[in-house]
Design a protein that fits this description.
The protein has helices at about 10-15, 60-80, and strands at about 30, 35, 50, 50-55. It is built from two helices and four strands. It has about 90 residues and is of the alpha+beta class. It has a domain at about 25-80. The strands form two sheets. A two-stranded antiparallel ribbon has the order 1-2. The termini are far apart. The chain is elongated and about 95 Å long. The chain binds zinc ion (ZN). Zinc ion binds near residues 43 and 48.
């Protein structure tokens, strides 16, 4: 019958049980969009907390940035059409 050559140290033995007490993380659902999130955290998907909008999400920031850029580009193009550049004269 095979027998272990050496005694397993306390550290090695106890490290086996180190993960025993870990429980699965409690999860809550967003009241606004229904996505899964940690309890007492603002929803990263929609920026709501307890059904109230409290934060601007990354996606919303990106959308707003794109809109402002587009508006600026349109303004520049309109200015170029009305005012010819001094080099062209
Ligand atoms: Zn949400």
């Amino acid at each position: 019958m095979p027998v272990p050559k050496r005694k397993r140290s306390r550290a090695r033995r106890d490290s086996r049980f180190a993960n025993k007490g870990i429980k699965a993380k409690a999860l809550a659902t967003c009241r606004n969009c229904g996505s899964t999130l940690e309890p007492h955290q603002v929803c990263a998907q929609c920026g709501h907390y307890k059904g109230v909008k409290v934060m601007v999400t990354k996606l919303e920031r990106m959308i707003k940035r794109g809109q402002t850029r587009k508006a600026q580009q349109e303004k520049m193009q309109a200015r170029q059409k009305t005012e010819p550049t001094p080099a062209a004269e």
